[in-house]
Amino acid sequence: SGEGRRRTPFGGNMASPAGCEHYVRSCLLKAPCCGKLYVCRLCHDAEENHQMDRFKVREVQCSACLTVQQTQQTCQQCHLLFGEYYCDICHLFDKDKKQYHCQPCGICRIGPREKYFHCEKCNLCLAQDLRGNHKCVENVSRQNCPVCMEDIHTSRIGAHVLPCGHLLHNAYRCPLCMHSAWDMQDHWEQMDKEIAQSPMPTEYQGAMVKIMCNDCQAHCTVPFHVLGMKCTSCGSYNTAQDGGLIQLQQPEQDAEPQQHDQQ
Q1: Start and end of every CTCHY-type domain (predicted)?
Q2: Which domains does the chain have, with CATH numbers?
């Protein structure tokens, strides 16, 4: 009977609804670590105090007939298609997203394959438009995202390649080298307007501060403002204050003659 199933572009049947919030599939994985059945390794890891090794999965249970069997794309009992895409290395079942298994990465990636290449030095699959057009950092993805601390290499969240060569999930500057992550010119211009419309209190007018620019590495002395200090070399507001405020004595010096006059 076809009730409760849907046709796939490949002519097979899949149980419907199927899968979990992470993947669309019609089977459960039998965890090699604890023997429990979960739709995917991520569901398992969220419930258990240990992690499932996807590469060691040997058995699955059909979501329709409940037959436990060796990992394969189609149920041996009722011929249900477990997933439009199946990798017999990662034991990944999912709807077709043009996935491919990258041997050097050791895991499946979302393609299509022809739009990506594997950079040997970065040891990561990158978009074709970055071929010869990115700064290589050896094994750059074999670390946690410095912002959210999630593993970058195996994350299902896309990582951005910054101009400095580092990877992270999302931020306006790289937390490793502090360089701006994107072209921030529009943002800097908006900050110019906000600062022009927000004069500092009288006691801070004329106050200066030494800064170091995280983008061009220049050191300069600029007017102090709580909204940000602009690099006079490249125009970036991605700067760090170097020391305390200077030239703050002017208001006190103006007041001293008045005090002497009163005496």
Answers
A1: 82-144
A2: 5-96 (no CATH), 100-168 (no CATH), 185-241 (2.20.28.10)
